[in-house]
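Journal club prep — side note

Before the paper discussion, L.F. wants everyone to see what a predicted structure for a comparable chain looks like in token form. Sequence:
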Amino acid sequence: MADVAKFAGTFISDIFTSRFRTTSKKLAFLYSFLFVFVAFTFFLAFFPSSFNNSSSSSSPWFTNLFTLATPNHVAAFGESYRSHFSSIFSFFFPTSSPEDSNNSIITNSTQVLKPRNGSISSAATVNNQTQNGDLHGSGKDSSTSPVSQLKNATISANPMGDKKNFSNSKQDNNGSSSKVGGGIDGGLISSLSKCDMFDGSWVRDESYPLYKPGSCELIDEQFNCFLNGREDNGYYKLKWQPKGCTLPRLDAQKMLEMLKGKRLVFVGDSLNRNMWESLICILKSAVKDQSKVYEEFGRRHFRTEAWYSFMFEEYKCTIEFFVSPFLVEEWVVTEKNGTKKETLRLDLVSKSADKYKTADIIVFNTGHWWTHEKTSLGKDYYQEGSHVYKELNVLEAFRKALTHWGRWVDANINPVKSLVFFRGYSASHFSGGQWNSGGQCDHETEAIKNMTYLSPYPSKMVILEKVLRGMKTHVTYLNVTRMTDFRKDGHPSIYRKQNMSEEERKSPLSFQDCSHWCLPGVPDSWNEILYSQLLVKLKQRL
């Protein structure tokens, strides 16, 4: 460095001496200049960082030549370093400050950590056959969140496509949680994220239900037990209480804000229609102008069409239901003699799939239709390609169908845009027969309290879990099987309709519904869990 200074001094001295050799006064000026130059060069050589970090540093030549320390090394000098030289910096570089220098050091030494690649999570543990947390170890990059499509009144959201769509719950130096977006307690989110929401019990809560019985005219007659004459109220006064956390009460106003401009779609059988109607009634109760909540096609009954869509006009969001009881396509083949035969295509998803694959939130289910006689026997019914199986075990058919569904999800649903849920099997409680053979449950008015009376975990759900683990797409498993198994009291039973046929009036106990659920009732709790899951994902998917 001294050689550099010497060379520079000699070079400049020659120039200035040749020009100002006539007077000794000018020589004095020259040597004064040289002294300042050498001193300044010495200063930059040993203390370059602030110069490099200052906004005045525009020359890469100086940066490369004089930088002898890394930002981390400079940071080791601490406050004493900044206090000793801050006044000198401000003199030479008025746009720089010690704070600017410190911020630059922090930025340069901080690593950006991406979340673990997209995993498939399960929130339940049932008879040790389900798993908490992720069912996957790795998958797709989730640095841009599917939940970035959601907006919550208490959680800030930026326009779609911005990777910083939500404020995060941050820990202060003492480890305490600040509130997410200023409204949802970060401690609650942390508790929910670690909680098995499906391991718990039903407790009576007089503040329930979430909407007044008989107040929601959209409920199908099949589910409207209150208007159909059921007099006991325990079936809608119970709420689900997990052992490891407390589920927040579903705030309809906040959930509508979360869903603003979005599509939430239910796909599956009539049990998902049960859940869909429940959510519409919960959310509708928070809307002041009821005329701004309507079925887009003007329908008032929801059992005959393949697709229904409720518009919440103020929030520009839709809550939709697509009928697809198997998730794969029901088919018809023509026999050689010209007769037609119904089959189930295990290798094709339902025709409506293209209509819902771009939705922001999708909740799938299947299960109950796989217990019907035709599907359970499996004779001349299951089809792959042009091949119709003469006989195929129902569990193997279920595995094939779900495997194909999983591959379709992986290939067609964008995990950056969409959140995918799968709601598990909902327990039935027929006593003395099945749905079509005189099964009954009308005498049940209390939930099961002794776990020894619960049914074994269904084999089909074991298959489902295995399929979910093999998928690339993040799927959240809503394992409601055990929590519903407690609720033998929650079915419509004989209160499934007001106007019975002549045959039904003669023998009402032979026509009971012990598989669907009264509304208000059990499906409201499924939606409270869905609400909690969405709150958690606002943090997890940042």
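L.F.'s comment for the group: The longest helix spans residues 24-46. Keep this in mind when we get to the figures.
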